[in-house]
Amino acid sequence: MSDAATGRPVIDARKVGLTFQTADGPVHALKDVNLSVMKGDFVSFIGPSGCGKTTFLRAIAALEHPTEGDLRVNGMTPDEARKRRAYGYVFQAAGLYPWRTIAGNIRLPLEIMGFPKPEQDRRVKDVLQLVELEGFGKKYPWQLSGGMQQRASIARALAFDADILLMDEPFGALDEIVRDRLNEALLKLWAQTGKTIGFVTHSIPEAVYLSTKIVVMSPRPGRITDVIESPLPRERPLDIRDSAEFIAIAHRVREGLRAGHSYDD
Questions:
Q1: Over the Cα atoms of the chain, what is R_g?
Q2: In the predicted structure, residue 205 carries a pLDDT above the cut 70
Q3: pLDDT by residue (tens digit) across 131-151?
Q4: Which ranges carry the ABC transporter domain (predicted)?
Q5: What is the mean pLDDT of residues 17-35?
Q6: 16 Cβ contact list (under 8 Å, min separation 6)
Q7: How confident is the model over 115-132, as a mean pLDDT?
Q8: How far is CA 213 from the centre of its chain?
Q9: Is 41 in a helix, a strand, or coil?
Protein backbone atom coordinates (compact mmCIF):
# COMPACT_ATOMS: atom_id res chain seq x y z
CA MET A 1 0.00 0.00 0.00
CA SER A 2 1.36 3.44 -0.94
CA ASP A 3 2.09 6.27 1.47
CA ALA A 4 -0.67 8.26 -0.20
CA ALA A 5 -3.14 5.45 0.52
CA THR A 6 -2.06 5.05 4.15
CA GLY A 7 -1.87 8.80 4.79
CA ARG A 8 1.65 8.35 6.14
CA PRO A 9 4.06 11.23 5.51
CA VAL A 10 6.95 10.53 3.14
CA ILE A 11 9.11 12.83 5.32
CA ASP A 12 8.15 13.25 8.97
CA ALA A 13 10.09 15.44 11.42
CA ARG A 14 9.16 15.62 15.11
CA LYS A 15 10.99 18.14 17.32
CA VAL A 16 14.15 17.72 15.25
CA GLY A 17 17.21 19.58 16.51
CA LEU A 18 20.79 19.50 15.31
CA THR A 19 23.81 20.89 17.14
CA PHE A 20 27.31 20.90 15.68
CA GLN A 21 30.24 20.73 18.10
CA THR A 22 33.02 23.08 17.00
CA ALA A 23 36.29 24.35 18.45
CA ASP A 24 34.48 27.59 19.33
CA GLY A 25 31.67 25.78 21.10
CA PRO A 26 28.31 24.29 20.03
CA VAL A 27 26.47 25.66 16.99
CA HIS A 28 22.71 25.16 17.18
CA ALA A 29 21.71 24.70 13.52
CA LEU A 30 18.13 23.41 13.99
CA LYS A 31 15.68 23.55 16.88
CA ASP A 32 12.20 22.01 17.32
CA VAL A 33 11.56 21.41 13.62
CA ASN A 34 8.18 19.76 13.03
CA LEU A 35 7.12 18.99 9.47
CA SER A 36 5.12 16.43 7.50
CA VAL A 37 5.61 16.06 3.75
CA MET A 38 3.13 13.90 1.84
CA LYS A 39 3.73 11.90 -1.32
CA GLY A 40 3.79 14.12 -4.41
CA ASP A 41 4.34 17.37 -2.49
CA PHE A 42 6.72 19.99 -3.86
CA VAL A 43 8.14 21.60 -0.72
CA SER A 44 10.44 24.63 -0.80
CA PHE A 45 12.55 25.65 2.19
CA ILE A 46 13.32 29.36 2.39
CA GLY A 47 15.05 31.50 4.99
CA PRO A 48 18.11 33.69 5.57
CA SER A 49 21.64 32.36 5.03
CA GLY A 50 22.70 30.01 7.83
CA CYS A 51 19.12 29.26 8.94
CA GLY A 52 19.50 25.49 8.55
CA LYS A 53 17.65 24.94 5.25
CA THR A 54 20.46 22.92 3.73
CA THR A 55 21.24 21.26 7.07
CA PHE A 56 17.67 19.96 7.26
CA LEU A 57 17.79 18.72 3.65
CA ARG A 58 21.10 16.98 4.40
CA ALA A 59 19.58 15.40 7.53
CA ILE A 60 16.78 13.94 5.38
CA ALA A 61 19.53 12.48 3.15
CA ALA A 62 21.50 11.09 6.14
CA LEU A 63 24.40 13.43 5.31
CA GLU A 64 23.91 15.04 8.74
CA HIS A 65 22.41 13.43 11.85
CA PRO A 66 19.92 15.14 14.19
CA THR A 67 20.97 15.37 17.83
CA GLU A 68 17.36 15.73 19.04
CA GLY A 69 13.92 14.52 18.01
CA ASP A 70 12.86 11.99 15.39
CA LEU A 71 13.18 12.12 11.59
CA ARG A 72 11.63 9.51 9.30
CA VAL A 73 11.86 9.03 5.53
CA ASN A 74 9.33 6.58 4.09
CA GLY A 75 8.76 5.40 7.67
CA MET A 76 12.47 4.57 8.10
CA THR A 77 15.45 6.34 9.61
CA PRO A 78 17.33 8.46 7.05
CA ASP A 79 20.21 5.95 7.15
CA GLU A 80 17.84 3.08 6.30
CA ALA A 81 16.23 5.17 3.56
CA ARG A 82 19.66 5.94 2.09
CA LYS A 83 20.53 2.22 1.97
CA ARG A 84 17.23 1.59 0.16
CA ARG A 85 18.00 4.43 -2.27
CA ALA A 86 14.80 6.28 -1.38
CA TYR A 87 15.99 9.62 -2.75
CA GLY A 88 18.12 11.37 -5.34
CA TYR A 89 20.13 14.47 -4.33
CA VAL A 90 20.98 17.47 -6.51
CA PHE A 91 23.68 19.79 -5.13
CA GLN A 92 24.21 23.53 -5.71
CA ALA A 93 26.95 22.79 -8.25
CA ALA A 94 26.26 20.23 -10.96
CA GLY A 95 29.22 18.13 -9.78
CA LEU A 96 29.69 16.31 -13.07
CA TYR A 97 32.93 14.42 -13.67
CA PRO A 98 34.74 16.22 -16.52
CA TRP A 99 36.34 13.02 -17.87
CA ARG A 100 32.95 11.32 -18.28
CA THR A 101 30.41 12.11 -20.97
CA ILE A 102 26.97 13.32 -19.91
CA ALA A 103 25.60 9.80 -20.40
CA GLY A 104 28.58 8.44 -18.45
CA ASN A 105 27.85 10.79 -15.55
CA ILE A 106 24.19 9.76 -15.47
CA ARG A 107 25.19 6.10 -15.71
CA LEU A 108 27.56 6.26 -12.73
CA PRO A 109 25.06 5.56 -9.88
CA LEU A 110 23.52 2.79 -11.99
CA GLU A 111 26.96 1.18 -12.40
CA ILE A 112 27.57 1.43 -8.64
CA MET A 113 24.18 -0.17 -7.94
CA GLY A 114 24.92 -3.02 -10.34
CA PHE A 115 22.16 -2.45 -12.89
CA PRO A 116 22.61 -4.61 -16.03
CA LYS A 117 24.05 -2.74 -19.02
CA PRO A 118 20.83 -2.85 -21.11
CA GLU A 119 18.88 -1.43 -18.15
CA GLN A 120 21.51 1.30 -17.71
CA ASP A 121 21.17 2.23 -21.38
CA ARG A 122 17.37 2.38 -21.15
CA ARG A 123 17.38 4.54 -18.03
CA VAL A 124 20.01 6.94 -19.37
CA LYS A 125 17.98 7.39 -22.55
CA ASP A 126 14.74 7.92 -20.61
CA VAL A 127 16.11 10.56 -18.22
CA LEU A 128 17.96 12.44 -20.98
CA GLN A 129 14.60 12.72 -22.72
CA LEU A 130 12.90 13.75 -19.47
CA VAL A 131 15.28 16.70 -18.93
CA GLU A 132 15.29 17.55 -22.66
CA LEU A 133 18.92 16.67 -23.29
CA GLU A 134 18.40 14.11 -26.05
CA GLY A 135 21.39 14.14 -28.38
CA PHE A 136 23.78 15.42 -25.69
CA GLY A 137 24.70 12.08 -24.08
CA LYS A 138 28.06 11.91 -25.87
CA LYS A 139 29.04 15.48 -24.97
CA TYR A 140 31.34 16.32 -22.05
CA PRO A 141 30.30 18.69 -19.25
CA TRP A 142 32.55 21.51 -20.48
CA GLN A 143 30.68 21.46 -23.80
CA LEU A 144 27.36 22.31 -22.08
CA SER A 145 26.03 25.55 -20.61
CA GLY A 146 25.54 25.90 -16.85
CA GLY A 147 21.81 25.33 -17.17
CA MET A 148 22.32 22.20 -19.26
CA GLN A 149 24.85 20.87 -16.75
CA GLN A 150 22.29 21.28 -13.96
CA ARG A 151 19.69 19.43 -16.04
CA ALA A 152 22.23 16.62 -16.47
CA SER A 153 22.75 16.61 -12.69
CA ILE A 154 18.98 16.30 -12.19
CA ALA A 155 18.92 13.46 -14.74
CA ARG A 156 21.61 11.62 -12.75
CA ALA A 157 19.55 11.98 -9.57
CA LEU A 158 16.46 10.65 -11.39
CA ALA A 159 18.23 7.74 -13.09
CA PHE A 160 17.58 5.13 -10.39
CA ASP A 161 13.94 6.25 -10.04
CA ALA A 162 13.84 7.16 -6.34
CA ASP A 163 10.51 8.44 -5.03
CA ILE A 164 12.05 11.56 -3.44
CA LEU A 165 14.18 14.24 -5.12
CA LEU A 166 16.15 16.55 -2.78
CA MET A 167 17.51 19.73 -4.39
CA ASP A 168 19.85 22.21 -2.67
CA GLU A 169 19.65 25.57 -4.50
CA PRO A 170 20.25 23.89 -7.86
CA PHE A 171 19.59 27.07 -9.89
CA GLY A 172 21.11 29.64 -7.52
CA ALA A 173 24.19 30.35 -9.68
CA LEU A 174 22.27 30.76 -12.95
CA ASP A 175 21.02 33.96 -14.55
CA GLU A 176 17.35 34.86 -14.27
CA ILE A 177 16.35 33.90 -17.82
CA VAL A 178 17.92 30.43 -17.55
CA ARG A 179 16.50 30.04 -14.05
CA ASP A 180 12.97 30.79 -15.32
CA ARG A 181 13.32 28.16 -18.06
CA LEU A 182 14.58 25.56 -15.62
CA ASN A 183 11.80 26.36 -13.15
CA GLU A 184 9.28 25.68 -15.93
CA ALA A 185 11.12 22.49 -16.90
CA LEU A 186 11.21 21.30 -13.28
CA LEU A 187 7.45 21.76 -12.86
CA LYS A 188 6.90 19.80 -16.07
CA LEU A 189 9.24 17.05 -14.86
CA TRP A 190 7.46 16.95 -11.48
CA ALA A 191 4.08 16.60 -13.22
CA GLN A 192 5.42 13.77 -15.39
CA THR A 193 7.08 11.78 -12.60
CA GLY A 194 4.94 12.42 -9.51
CA LYS A 195 8.09 12.66 -7.36
CA THR A 196 8.09 14.18 -3.91
CA ILE A 197 10.48 17.14 -4.09
CA GLY A 198 12.32 19.00 -1.31
CA PHE A 199 13.85 22.21 -2.68
CA VAL A 200 16.09 24.75 -0.92
CA THR A 201 16.09 28.31 -2.28
CA HIS A 202 16.85 31.92 -1.32
CA SER A 203 14.38 33.25 -3.89
CA ILE A 204 10.84 34.11 -2.78
CA PRO A 205 9.43 34.13 -6.36
CA GLU A 206 11.05 30.75 -7.07
CA ALA A 207 9.64 29.22 -3.87
CA VAL A 208 6.13 30.54 -4.58
CA TYR A 209 6.20 29.56 -8.26
CA LEU A 210 7.36 25.98 -7.73
CA SER A 211 5.79 24.79 -4.51
CA THR A 212 2.68 23.16 -3.17
CA LYS A 213 4.06 23.91 0.30
CA ILE A 214 6.50 26.66 1.36
CA VAL A 215 8.42 26.21 4.61
CA VAL A 216 9.68 29.52 6.02
CA MET A 217 12.60 29.24 8.46
CA SER A 218 14.08 31.61 11.05
CA PRO A 219 17.72 32.60 11.53
CA ARG A 220 19.85 30.12 13.48
CA PRO A 221 18.87 28.08 15.34
CA GLY A 222 16.61 27.22 12.41
CA ARG A 223 12.95 26.95 13.35
CA ILE A 224 9.90 26.83 11.11
CA THR A 225 8.03 30.14 11.39
CA ASP A 226 5.35 29.36 8.78
CA VAL A 227 4.18 26.54 6.51
CA ILE A 228 2.19 27.90 3.57
CA GLU A 229 -0.05 25.53 1.60
CA SER A 230 -0.20 27.03 -1.89
CA PRO A 231 -3.64 27.56 -3.45
CA LEU A 232 -2.10 27.96 -6.92
CA PRO A 233 -3.02 25.36 -9.58
CA ARG A 234 -0.40 22.72 -10.34
CA GLU A 235 -0.10 23.91 -13.94
CA ARG A 236 1.60 27.29 -13.67
CA PRO A 237 2.62 29.49 -16.58
CA LEU A 238 5.34 32.01 -15.71
CA ASP A 239 2.88 34.91 -15.93
CA ILE A 240 1.04 33.53 -12.90
CA ARG A 241 3.68 35.51 -10.99
CA ASP A 242 1.71 38.67 -11.87
CA SER A 243 -1.51 37.36 -10.32
CA ALA A 244 -2.98 38.69 -7.07
CA GLU A 245 -2.83 35.19 -5.52
CA PHE A 246 0.88 34.85 -6.26
CA ILE A 247 1.66 38.30 -4.88
CA ALA A 248 -0.33 37.55 -1.71
CA ILE A 249 1.61 34.32 -1.08
CA ALA A 250 4.94 36.12 -1.68
CA HIS A 251 3.87 38.78 0.83
CA ARG A 252 3.09 36.10 3.42
CA VAL A 253 6.53 34.53 2.87
CA ARG A 254 8.17 37.93 3.43
CA GLU A 255 6.15 38.43 6.61
CA GLY A 256 7.24 35.00 7.84
CA LEU A 257 10.89 35.83 7.17
CA ARG A 258 10.54 39.11 9.10
CA ALA A 259 8.75 37.40 11.98
CA GLY A 260 11.51 34.80 12.15
CA HIS A 261 14.02 37.43 13.19
CA SER A 262 12.38 37.63 16.60
CA TYR A 263 13.90 34.18 17.27
CA ASP A 264 17.42 35.34 16.41
CA ASP A 265 20.05 34.85 19.10
A1: 18
A2: yes
A3: 889 999 999 999 999 889 999
A4: 13-244
A5: 91
A6: 30, 32, 33, 34, 56, 59, 66, 68, 69, 70, 71
A7: 92
A8: 12
A9: coil
Where are the domains positioned within the chain?
A: 3-49+173-263
Task: Give pLDDT, residue 65.
Answer: 95
pLDDT for 160 equals 84
**Identity at 91, one-letter amino acid code:** F
Count of C-beta atoms within a 10 Å radius of residue 24: 6
Separation of alpha carbons 19 and 201, rounded Å: 22
CATH of 3-49+173-263, one of 3.40.50.300, 3.40.190.170, 2.40.30.10, 3.30.499.10: 3.40.50.300
Buried/exposed 39-62: b ≥16 CB within 10 Å, e otherwise: bbbbbbbbbbeebbbbbbbbbbbb
Measured CA to CA, the distance from residue 168 to residue 10 in angstroms comes to 18
